[in-house]
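Example 3.2
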Amino acid sequence: MIQQLKNISANVLKLLAIALIIILCGIAYLGYRLLYSPDFESNNKEPIYIYINRSTTFEQLCEALATTAHCKRIKDFVFLAEKLNYPENMKTGRYAVFSGMNHLDLLNRLRRGQQKAVRITFNNVRLTEELAERLADQLMITKEEIISLLQDQDFCNSQGFSTTTITTMFIPNTYEMYWNITAENLIARMRVEYDTFWNKDRMEKADDAGLTPVETSILASIVEEESAVEDEYPTIAGLYINRLKKGMLLQADPTVKYSVGDFTLRRILDKHKTVKSPYNTYMHTGLPPGPIRFPSIKAIDAVLNFKHHKYLYMCAKEDFSGRHNFSATLTEHTHNASRYHSELNRRRIR
């Protein structure tokens, strides 16, 4: 009898041991599944990006993970996030979710604010409002936040510019930065890029042309608006530098369009040339107080590498090729202008 009891006890212990092992294995499996099992599966080789702004709630984040990042066990993610106190400590940013990523890996990235940089561009921009909209479309900041700083005289002075010239600090290009960058830090970053762009070589060339970096950008903005043909940029730049050195009015049609507020004008009339504006170079000598667009690097470098010649006048070619006839004398220019205006009349362009 005693031996039978011993055998029963031994069997019970074995069963208990087996049950405990099964339970521990189950716990281990559940723990592994919760922490390390891949749960973001998609057919995309590229990562999926999740954006968290200042107003994003934890519930909205979970919805985005389930619908956009293909999280199959969102309840497990919620459980782990709550255990790690993440919902109360969310950080803004643009986060990459890779196929095969597990909950713990993603939560660690989210908790640390370990986001992926975004590449922003703002080429071919004319007005400050356009720049602000372009940046706001690519970053977490709002258009109003950017414009407010660019119109703040004290802030612009702190960057070494005025509210009129601050836009010359923005060199159109592609830049990498974090999506949740503040407006202040964005402009500070642009200042760093500006200082890098204006290296010793460019500074020396600007000085040789008798221009400051700001004046170079202002002239480049006019040059770029004058022609859609890039190989004409250095010639046009040389023409305007010649006029500046002689103290002549620039009489640049793009500055009239800017003054009128209509870049679509195809024919500049006398009524346009007499518009009262500090940007109207038919009325005021020298360069306008600020740029009339955000000049490209090609336009800026064209001014710095302007062609040396004797041209003082230019007129669009009558074949409407987008190119110009250049001349050194008013007589020659008058003939060129006459041919162009005759073609405008023939095409009934008013």
